[in-house]
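Encode chain A's predicted structure.
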Amino acid sequence: MSDAVLFDARSDGIAVITLNRPERRNCLARDVRDGLAEAWERFERDDALRVAILTGAGTKAFCAGGDLEEMVRTGMAVPPRDMYALPYDTLELSKPTIAAVNGAAFAGGWMIAQACDLCVASTTATFAVTEVKVGRSSPWAAPLIHMIPQRIMMELLLTGKPVDARRAYEIGLVNRLAEPEDLMAAALELATEILAGAPLSVRAARDTVMLATEMGRAAALQAARHASTACYLSEDAQEGPRAFLEKRPPRWSGR
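Encoded structure for chain A:
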């Protein structure tokens, strides 16, 4: 890993990925993009890691978005399809991800926070889709329609105006709020709650949510049943009820 993105593989099964260019407000310059792609790949292929937390170094910005200097220098028109490593878009992850937003999440910063499964935000965080302010576009924002109401999404994209963390929480973009000094503790708490579940059950639950956003009710039910088969047939599916009856914590094997 380069120092543009830090990777902390904790012994408890949580990976903490940190965008590490605070002097540039953690913007998505080439070194950060490459580091983030490598970090997601490392997280996915390490079976000991079950949840990832993505955050930014410093207190001012989670990520200020794309590198405008690069856009000017290269005369960038349509961004290359593989320019950004985005879960559910340009890469596939099978494990849950949490954005821990510690400051401004603007444009591409909102994009990568949105791409995570869950979001914990500092009370000082701000969010904005600012592309209309600089003549760019935000096609990556399309999945927002499954997260927040249409009229709110329309206003955010058409005006480019930022919203504070409290408003982001009210509209459903953010799962939990924390004081700045408690942000990482809150993200780790959420990750630990996920870790308490059986690994295959967590995967099936995550798949069920995403399948429900991709298709109609009947098709989603059928697809979710199929996605849950491995969970039902696992050793953990027998261990969970047995542990409950024996009044002890379950011992998950992930099999």
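The radius of gyration is 19 Å.
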